[in-house]
Amino acid sequence: MGQPKKRTSPRRTRSRRSHLVLKLARQVNAKSPIKAYTTKRESAKTLVSKVAKAKKSSTTPAK
């Protein structure tokens, strides 16, 4: 009986369980003062600061 073909390129290490890592990072960011990166381009620290700026600008009365 023939043998199965081998993969020509191995699977990348980081993309193996990325959905679990993302879920865990968001749980940590909800509770911890130290923020973890959720995706390559998204940090909870920057998200928190953007939300804070949006709230601050919306509560400031217009002159």
Largest β sheet strand count, sense and barrel closure: none
Number of helices: 2
Average pLDDT figure: 78
Distance between the termini: 82 Å
Along the chain, the helix and strand elements come as HH
Dominant shape: elongated
Gyration radius, in Å: 21 Å
Strand content: under 5%
Low-confidence stretches: none
Residue share in helix? 40-55%
Secondary-structure-derived class: mainly alpha
Number of strands: 0
Explain the overall architecture:
The structure is a single chain. The chain has 63 residues and is mostly helical. Helices cover 48% and strands 0% of the residues. The protein contains two helices and no strands. The protein has helices at 18-31, 44-59. It starts with 17 loop residues before the first helix and ends with a helix. The model has no long low-confidence stretch (mean pLDDT 78).
